[in-house]
From TrEMBL:
All residue ranges annotated as the POTRA domain in the record: 54-127, 128-205
Entry's Gene Ontology BP terms: membrane assembly
Residue span of region Disordered: 27-52
Biased composition (Pro residues): 30-48
UniProt-listed InterPro entries: Bac_surfAg_D15, BamA/TamA_POTRA, D15-like, OM_assembly_BamA, POTRA
A Pfam family this chain is assigned to: POTRA
Lineage top rank: taxon: Bacteria
A GO CC annotation given for this chain: cell outer membrane
Name of the protein described by the UniProt record: Outer membrane protein assembly factor BamA
Keyword list, A-Z: Cell outer membrane, Membrane, Repeat, Signal, Transmembrane, Transmembrane beta strand
Subcellular location, record wording: Membrane
NCBIfam families: OM_YaeT (TIGR03303)
Length: 839
């Protein structure tokens, strides 16, 4: 505003200096003084002498320090000894201001003493040159983000208009973040050489809080339902309900979320008529006042599919969402989480209609029709009883299917192409299939050899027929680890340590080799494993393992167990099922027990205790995002036949089953390039096992121990070995099975439900509910008698392997009354530490 007022005053002064008289300008009687010095009194010309200021003999610019006079005169554009008028003079003044060099311009006519000649003088005040720009007081927005809004050039004259625009742009940025109370103050400091330094001092204040939301014009949906759909919510009693205002979220509420909510209930003509944000700057509060027009509620009328040739109409009608079928499991789970009003039968839901259209599009893409266009037509009309209805139609333009021309791998420097291509289910020469493309992308990510998230595969057309090339891009990350360490303990513990070598991508061929050795006075575990996922470049996999393990757990009456053995497994593909594997395993093991104190052999197995084991297993695994799966499932069945014609000192059969399923509920985040989205998921799992016969001295690992997370079958909220076939053992702890052989059952059953948050490929947190029991014999199985536990946990993948903590509440724990000697209910919390395994 100051800049504009100075310019107007200069124009007025120019008009005052020159007044038209017979097309000539007369000399001013009282010329306007320059800003820094008084003007000399002008001589008065004779009364009959025409005005000499209309045709000045010379033109000068006074007050210049930095700008040259030639440059200033050039900007003026006036020539001496030529007749001037007010319009020309005003234009000259504007050109001086327009050069950006001056903050004040005054003009005066200076007649000579004779009164026959005159000088036209322009008195100027130069703008100071900007030396530096700084920003202070920023917290919410980065200093760089604020500097991007400041459009002033260092080393140039400071323009007040640009400073004002910078203040407005910074203020707009803070308002977009919800900081309507921010104050931006430009502070200037003059230097000794007359230059200027500029600092934008920002008092951010606090974020504007929404005190309330009022909806006007809504009759079918309540204010609460509308506000629930919004991300902009009023502040509440609890600390997490701050009610912070964000301009982008508010805009999304008005343009997307509220209209989508109404469209889900059949109000597809809904509009937001007016929105008002009433701000109380003194209190830092705001009130949102919305006026809406709901429009009529539409019900579903007729439905048809036209111009479809690849799929019969009956097949496409299966995707139609308004056929009276109930919601899916995912829809039911989301309904429980989000709540909200339920639609009456026959009401049109635009979200379901759009989702069904996308499923039809996917069905065509999976058959190679990637160029097919599915046009969802919604025709508004009036049905019986003047009820507004929509007649629905899928208008299909199938076009030609696409063939996969090439599949390329890019970015793999160490891992071989062959290793990666084994994960592909989309192959050159085949009809393009979107599901196969997605599954191939997920399988490459499951290898764990590349940085995640992987870029989605590139596809591009290569010829006029619409055939495409597919390119998978990866970025190698470091795999494998070498770990070693040593410790010295007191009280007879002695020296201990560990050595670990692990390479899951040996030679870049996806082969795995690992060696682990933990040693000490009470532990001496050695394990050597080698596995090949493609023996001789076939789909047959194989592995071999050798081990020797001295258990750190003490079993009452037996002591600590030592096992020495080896096993080999061959995995065979299942015809017609890419994600299924049939495995054949042979293993041999010898075992013995030693007393913890004396170190002598005890129990029934001091020598010649040997088992020979032939195993069969079937696994169908469609999980994605390993090691923390977010979708898919895994089903595994195992049968082990020990002894009999295989030889050995024991004979029995052992069967286990493991079923897991995961479904994503919703996904958020990941908008920044390179960032992984966060996924909320629901997981269900069930495990069961049974032993028929007597495993003899091999019971410790062939029968089932229940409780804890480390030794046997996990059941959180309870100590290791505490769930026995005879109930809860209050004496058990994480290192001792006080019930001895009786702590191990020949059958077990557990199940888990979890609500998880997958933050990325290395970090996972969840809330869980466990239930299970241990049984003496398989025929004792009773799913109505289960021990229950619930809690929260987290897992992280480190170079040392998976680590995790679970804090669980055991509902059915007991304790021994020291007075009566009887068991009494004693539910409590238990902290579990997981190392080397994930649930």
């Amino acid at each position: 505003m100051r800049f504009a007022s100075l310019r107007r005053s200069a124009v007025v002064a120019a008009t005052a200096v020159l007044s038209m008289t017979s097309a000539r300008l007369a000399p001013a009687q009282n010329p306007v003084p320059p800003p820094s010095q008084p003007a000399a009194p002008a001589a008065q010309p004779p009364a009959d002498q025409p005005g000499v200021c209309a045709r000045p003999d010379s033109i000068v610019v006074r007050g210049l320090k930095r700008v040259t006079e030639a440059s200033a005169l050039g900007d003026l554009g006036l020539a001496p000894s030529t007749e001037l008028n007010a319009v020309q003079l005003q234009g000259a003044i504007r050109r001086l201001y327009g050069s950006g060099q001056f903050e004040d311009v005054r003009v005066a006519c200076e007649p000579a003493p004779s009164g026959q000649r005159a000088t036209l003088a322009f008195y100027v005040k130069e703008r100071p040159v900007l030396d530096a720009v700084s920003v202070s007081g920023v917290k919410v927005i980065s200093e760089g983000g604020v500097r991007d809004k400041i459009d002033v050039l260092i080393g140039s004259p400071l323009d007040p208009a640009k400073v004002a625009r910078a203040v407005e742009r910074i203020d707009s940025s803070y308002q977009a973040k919800g900081f309507y109370l921010a104050r931006i103050k430009p502070e200037s400091t003059l230097t000794t050489d007359g230059h200027i330094r500029l600092n934008f001092h920002i008092d951010e204040g606090r974020r504007l809080a929404i005190s309330g939301v009022r909806i006007n014009g809504n009759t079918r949906l309540s204010d609460k339902e509308v506000v629930t759909a919004m991300k902009t919510k009023p502040e509440g009693f609890w600390w997490w309900r701050k009610g912070s205002f964000d301009d982008e979220k508010y805009a999304g509420d008005l343009s997307e979320r509220i209209p989508t909510l109404y469209a889900q209930h059949g109000f597809i003509d809904f509009t937001v008529v007016k929105d008002t944000l009433v701000i109380d700057r003194e209190r830092g509060k705001a009130f949102i006042d919305l006026t809406v027009s709901e429009g009529p509620q539409y019900k579903v009328g007729t439905f048809e599919v036209v111009d479809n040739h690849r799929f019969p109409t009956e097949d496409l009608q299966r995707y139609y969402p308004f056929n009276g079928e109930g919601p899916t499991l995912t829809q039911r789970a989301m309904g429980l989480l989000k709540g909200g009003a339920k639609n009456e039968k026959g009401v049109f839901d635009r979200s379901q209609w759009e989702s069904a259209t996308e499923k039809v599009q996917t069905a065509y893409r999976n058959e190679g029709y990637i160029y097919a266009q599915i046009q969802p037509v919604v025709q508004r009309t009036v049905g019986p009883d003047s009820q507004p209805v929509v007649n629905l139609r899928w208008q299909i333009d199938e076009r030609q299917p696409a063939i996969v021309n090439r599949v390329d791998i890019a970015g793999n420097d160490y891992t071989s192409d062959e290793c990666i291509r084994r994960q592909l289910v989309i192959l050159p020469g085949a009809v393009f299939n979107q599901d196969r493309l997605l599954r191939s992308w997920q399988s490459i990510g499951n290898l764990g050899f590349f940085e995640t998230p992987l870029p989605f595969p590139d596809t591009h057309t290569v010829n006029d027929n619409g055939d495409i090339d597919v390119t998978f891009r990866v970025k190698e990350k470091r795999t494998g680890s070498i770990n070693f360490g040593a410790s010295m303990g007191g009280a007879g513990v002695g020296v201990g340590g560990f050595i670990g070598l692990d390479q899951p991508n040996l030679f870049g061929l996806c082969k795995r080799g690992s060696l682990n050795w933990n040693f000490g006075r009470f532990i001496n575990d050695f394990n050597l494993t080698y596995s090949d996922p493609a023996i001789l470049k076939s789909r047959v996999s194989g592995s071999i393992t050798a081990y020797r393990s001295e258990s750190r757990y003490n079993i009452q009456g037996f002591g600590q167990n030592t096992r020495t053995g080896a096993s080999t497994r061959v995995g065979l593909p299942v015809p017609g099922s890419y994600f299924s594997t049939l495995g054949i395993t042979y293993g041999a093991e010898a075992t013995s027990f030693r007393d913890v104190q004396s170190g002598a052999f005890v129990g029934q197995c001091t020598a010649n205790c040997f088992r020979s084991d032939l195993g069969l297993d079937f696994t169908h695994d469609t999980r994605i995002d390993l090691p923390f799966p977010s979708a898919g499932g895994m089903q595994s069945l195992t049968a082990d036949f020990v002894g009999g014609p295989l030889g050995g000192t024991v004979s029995y059969q052992r069967y286990t089953a493991d079923f897991r399923a995961y479904t994503p509920l919703f996904e958020f985040g990941g908008g920044v390039p390179g960032a992984q989205s966060k996924k909320v998921l629901l997981g269900l799992s069930m495990k069961a096992g049974a032993v028929f016969g007597d495993p003899g001295p091999f019971f410790q690992y062939q029968s089932f121990a229940l409780g804890g997370v480390q030794f046997g079958q996990p059941l959180r909220g309870y100590p290791e070995f505490s769930i026995t076939p005879r109930g809860f053992d209050p004496r058990a702890d994480n290192f001792n099975a006080f019930s001895g052989r009786a702590a191990f059952g020949n059958a077990y059953f557990t199940m888990t439900a979890e609500l998880g948050l997958r933050l990325n490929s290395q970090l996972y947190v969840d809330a869980f509910y466990d239930a299970g029991n241990n049984y003496d014999r398989p025929r004792d199985f009773n799913p109505t008698r289960l021990f229950r536990g619930a809690g929260i946990g987290g897992s992280i993948v480190t170079p040392l392997g998976p680590l995790g903590l679970d804090w669980a509440y055991g509902f059915d724990r007991l304790s021994l009354d020291p007075i009566t000697g009887k068991l009494r209910p004693d539910p409590k919390w238990q902290l579990h530490f997981k190392l080397g395994q994930l649930f």
